Amino acid sequence: MSAPARSGAEDAEDAEDAEDRARQDAVLTWYDGSARDLPWRREGTSPWGVLVSEVMSQQTPVARVVPVWQEWMRRWPGPADLAPAPTAHVLRAWGTLGYPRRALRLIECAQAVVEHHDGAVPTERDALLALPGVGEYTAGAVMAFAHGRRALVLDTNVRRVLARSVGGQALPAPSLTRAERERAQGLLPRSDQRAARWSAAVMELGALVCTAREPHCDACPWGEQCAWVASGRPADVHAARRRTQAWHGTDRQARGRIMAVLRAADPEVSVGRRELLAAVSGSDPAQPARALSGLLADGLVATDDDGVTIRLP
User: What value, to the nearest 5°, has the Cα angle with vertex 175 and ends 209 and 98?
Assistant: First the structure.
């Protein structure tokens, strides 16, 4: 009697060595009991909902994203709903998430999904990368978290966890390296379902336990196997190369103040240029006009009278 046929997932799992399997089991078990109840992780969330959550979460704390995402998905649950939405309405809904150009890219992304994919978020990496505003990380995250596919998902949290636990470094290099990518690819479970869960688990581990400034090593499922801990927690060898991104007094802050005034204004009324410039006056007299010019160039604000008054587009 012949042996029963084996699935591709079973063959893939057998190909992984015992050490890798144990590492995977440890973090997956931890994730099952410790993962945050984020709304986009709940059953029934559409691939579009996952994509929106990933775009919103870029360089933005999750706690700030949750209420905006929930209201956004209520108003525009799918690409076909967002694609024709007025830009001004979208920018007001984006609120204070920061980097509002991401909101414009989401509109363009929705339009592309409707036009080229019949309103369904694609499942293949190349098709995802072709969408406006979707880069390598977002494409991998959508493949993994929306479609349950095996895909490389390397955000800041994942890079930090792997740099410490496997590489023995306090923090990864400022820019993603080829060696990092190859290491992460080698650790990724072979089967689709397990790889998708692994990616979510390692990301969550970095967000909750293996944090940048104060890692909670006593709560880490990899504490005993962590190369960084075993090496005595050496200092960050890349510290001199890192640049802290200031906020107070920057053009980014000035742009944010202008956007805040326009979001709060009557949607039917443009705001005078002088009023906007006065809202961001500071130590640099050229900064208000520079910030406003940048917003106009980026398409985040508009004018109908050569700049005398300004409105959301």
Answer: 70
